[in-house]
DNA sequence: AGGCTTACCTAGAGGTCCTAGGCAAATCAT
DNA sequence: ATGATTTGCCTAGGACCTCTAGGTAAGCCT
């Protein structure tokens, strides 16, 4: 009987595609096994358990997003960088809903440390170099930006903005304008 | 055999308590049935299915949060109102993690319309009456505030802010300062 | 070619979701 | 009060998911 040639990486990759197709909550060991035409039990040679699979998926998504944001950021600064970051972030989330949902998993500190999560914070900080901000305001601003981006795409995806005719795209652009203006005139404690 | 006296409301209430204890994703029909000492099948006289139960929980949480925010908002305006709203929102989310997670479910438009979701938008709009904002900027600002509040508490709960020593509480206060100053000097298109 | 590692298997236990159909408790009509 | 109706909870059981223990055979290494 020919082997399917499974590895943890191939499983994670397939899980990512599955997540975007059927939703993160429907990424199951069984569905993944079906996809490869093997029995459920076979997957447990490569992953510890279902949670482990989802964590791997989250780490993959974090790394992918970090790459795309990094590309978008290259050579830009100031508001240009802010907008590029934000749009790359939002595009990824909307194009890859399952992966984005995976990213919201609470990772244990160890996993988070070795994942690309640090790169995200670092890149957000890079944006702020175009503005006149220093610690601890810089950290506060990083948190504010991250919160707003994440909050916006989460709510957008949950349909929270559909109840009003104002275009979601238009609000997004204005939100970025507002954040830029806020960073330029950051209130001094 | 004595009856347990179940109703959809009692189930929903118990589900809310269960959610805060063991996490929203662990609110199952089975766990709820165990809690009441009845068989799983018995619950299906009161709820349509597991999804229906979770939607009821989300609607309950939305209404509770709307009430608490409404109380906090009473008699305040301007930055006072902004801070009161934000703190009530965040307190609820941190005190009731399971209910808060439930609120993030994508509700179908019908359910969303009859839920307290509209009251939230309305209350956020009420805050903006203390600032000089008109449509469509008002809607953009409502979305920005909602995004930032939601994003902040989501990320805080996911542990995204733990990697840095800066206090989460301090950043929160500065975030509110920043939003206030942003609303006072909203950039004109 | 023989031996070792390991990818994948079967078998099975335990959990969740949900339906069909049954009995008995509560409620209502007379 | 008694019979009729409604309904709350039951048993039984199927479908799917998670995960373990232990076995077979494919592919690598010497």
TrEMBL record, chains A, B:
Origin species, per record, is: Lentzea miocenica
Cytoplasm: present as a keyword of the record?
no
Signal sequence range: none
What does the organism's lineage look like at the top? Bacteria, Bacillati, Actinomycetota, Actinomycetes, Pseudonocardiales
The record's Pfam families line, in alphabetical order, gives: TetR_C_33 (PF13305), TetR_N (PF00440)
Task: For this UniProt record, give its keywords in alphabetical order, as a comma-separated list.
Answer: DNA-binding, Transcription, Transcription regulation
Matching PROSITE patterns = HTH_TETR_2 (PS50977)
Q: Sorted alphabetically, which Gene3D superfamilies does this protein's record hold?
A: Homeodomain-like, Tetracycline Repressor, domain 2
- In its UniProt entry, what is this protein called? WHG domain-containing protein
């Amino acid at each position: 009987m020919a082997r399917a040639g499974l590895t943890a990486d191939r499983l994670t990759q397939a899980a990512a595609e599955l997540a975007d197709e059927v939703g993160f909550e429907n990424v199951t060991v069984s569905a993944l096994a079906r996809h490869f035409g093997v029995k459920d039990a076979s997957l447990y040679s490569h992953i510890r358990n279902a949670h482990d699979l989802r964590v791997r998926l989250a780490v993959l998504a974090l790394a992918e997003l970090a790459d795309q944001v990094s590309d978008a950021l290259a050579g830009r600064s100031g508001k240009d960088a802010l907008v590029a970051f934000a749009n790359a972030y939002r595009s990824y989330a909307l194009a890859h809903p399952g992966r984005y949902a995976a990213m919201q998993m609470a990772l244990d500190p160890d996993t988070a440390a070795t994942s690309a999560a640090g790169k995200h914070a670092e890149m957000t900080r890079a944006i702020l170099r175009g503005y006149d901000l220093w610690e601890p305001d810089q950290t506060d601003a990083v948190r504010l930006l991250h919160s707003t981006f994440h909050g916006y795409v989460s709510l957008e995806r949950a349909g929270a903005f559909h109840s009003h005719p104002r275009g979601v795209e238009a609000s997004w652009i204005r939100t970025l304008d507002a954040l830029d203006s806020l960073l330029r005139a950051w209130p001094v404690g």
